[in-house]
Amino acid sequence: MARGVRRSRSEEEQESYFVSMAxxxxxxxxxxxxxxxxxxxxxxxxxxxxxxxxxxxxxxLKRLDEQLRDHGLAVSIDTGSGVLRLPxxxxxxxxxxxxxxxxxxxxxxxxxxxxxILPCYTYPRPATGCPATAQHVDAIFIEGxxxxxxxxxxxxxxxxxxxxxxxxxxxxxxxxxxxxxxxxMRNQLPGQGAPQPILSVSGYGADRPVDPSGTPDAKRRNRRxxxxxxMATPQTREPRR
Length: 241
Known about the structure:
Layout: H1 2-70, E1 76-78, E2 83-87, H2 88-91, H3 101-117, E3 137-145, H4 160-178, E4 199-203, H5 216-222, E5 224-231
Parallel strand pairs: 3-4
Antiparallel strand pairs: 1-2, 2-5, 3-5
C-alpha cells in the first residue's frame, strides 16, 4: 500500500510538471502570436505610409509638369525617382554657369509653380484648400549635372564638378529670388524637431549620366538640372495625434 501511494504521488508530480510546462508553452505561443500581429500591423502601416508618400510625390510632379507646360516650358518628370528635369539648353549656354535670359524666365515660371503647389506639402500649411494628406516634402535637391567633356579652366571653375555645383547654386538663388516663399518653406512643424528649409543644392559633374553612350545627343541630355523631391519617411514624419 505504501509503495502504491508513493507511486501515485510520483505520477501526480510528473503530471503536474507536464501541465506546468504545457501552460508555459501555451503562454509563450500566445506572446509570440501577439508580437507577430504587432509587427505585421507595423509593417502594413509603414508600407501604406511609403505608398502614400510616393503617390503624393507623383501628384506634385504631375501638377508641376502641367503648369509648366501651360506656360510653354517643357520639362521631363520621373515619378518613380521623384525627379523633375530641366535640360541645359533651357537654362545655360554650353560651358557657362550663368543663367541665360531665357533660363531666368524658365526658372521664374518654375518658382511660381512650386510656390503655388508646395505649401500644401510643407510647413506652415494653409488652413484651407489642401488635399487631405499627412504626407509632406522632406527635401528638394537642386542637382547640377554635366557631360563628360573635360572643362578648361575658367576662373573659379576648374572642372565639370565645379561647373555643376555653380549651376545648381545659381538655379537655387534664381528660384528663391523669383519665388521668395520657397525659402520660407520648412519640412516639419516647430516643436517636432528642428524645422529645416526644403531646398538644397548638390553637384555631380559627369558622374551621373542619364545616357552614358557618349554621343552628341547623349551629352546634350546629360547636361541638365534635376530637382529631386524627397518625401518624409514614416520615421521622420510627425507623430499622429
